[in-house]
Amino acid sequence: MKKLNELTQEQLRICINSGTEKPFTGKFLNENRIGTYRCVRCHNPLFRSDTKFDAGCGWPSFYETISKNSLRYIDDYSLGRHRTEIRCGNCDAHMGHVFPDGPAPTGLRFCLNSVALNFKWDETGENIDG
Asked: Where is the MsrB domain (predicted)?
């Protein structure tokens, strides 16, 4: 697991302080290679690329996690309305939010900050941080 001093300022702002990257700026928004998206801090597997879809919201979106324990869910009222925050189920890093307006089969839209993710490309095994 990366120590706090090994994270970039942007990773600290988002993963530790629950920030959000600007829409349409994330490194993985238009990523189309086959692989696994993982927590940038502890490399916990979160999503497979075949569950990624273009939600048009400006952040990488997925409809299903790798396992039911991949993420932790927290009620979030920070904007004056209810949302569900998602955090890494292993290290508790802030990932983004989940909404009930995604596609079948789950009907969920996991909306992620690219900077909170690491991508392991299946073809080469290369790890890429967001």
From this structure: 1-122
